[in-house]
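User: quick one, sequence for these tokens?
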């Protein structure tokens, strides 16, 4: 179940923010709205159809806001802090950059039919099948192994 705390955890795990503010239920709803618009827009592009006007308006509105800005610390490391508005602006602007990038054609959907994740296939041969080996890829390999070992030779 999504919660403001899960939004905070995601921002840290994704490396978007080093420290997160206390997100509210309203913040979570706004983040989910942007996430879903991103997802629908990428799918529209993958299916060679235009995105909805509402998604275009929402993503453009967020992309024009001030983005997250990394800070260089005296020890040479960097720190990323900011607000939900800056986070969503960064995500929307990054999506707009990705839509115009030649690598957009490398975006794929996970081969696991139960998974809805999209990923950029950066493998040398462009033949990656799963969003990640630690989850979907491993499950598929275990399933195939069990199937091979159940069948008589």
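Assistant:
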């Amino acid at each position: 179940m999504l919660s403001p705390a899960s939004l905070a955890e995601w921002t840290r795990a994704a490396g978007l923010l080093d420290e997160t503010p206390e997100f509210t239920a309203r913040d979570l709803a706004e983040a989910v709205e942007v996430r879903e618009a991103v997802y629908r827009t990428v799918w529209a592009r993958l299916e060679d159809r235009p995105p909805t006007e509402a998604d275009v308006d929402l993503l453009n509105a967020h992309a024009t806001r001030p983005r997250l800005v990394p800070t260089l610390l005296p020890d040479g490391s960097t720190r990323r802090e900011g607000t939900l508005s800056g986070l969503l602006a960064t995500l929307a602007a990054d999506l707009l950059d990705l839509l115009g990038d030649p690598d957009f054609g490398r975006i794929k959907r996970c081969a696991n039919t139960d998974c809805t994740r999209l990923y950029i296939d950066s493998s040398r041969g462009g033949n990656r099948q799963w969003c990640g080996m630690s989850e979907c890829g491993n499950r598929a390999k275990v399933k195939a192994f069990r199937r091979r070992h159940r069948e008589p030779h």
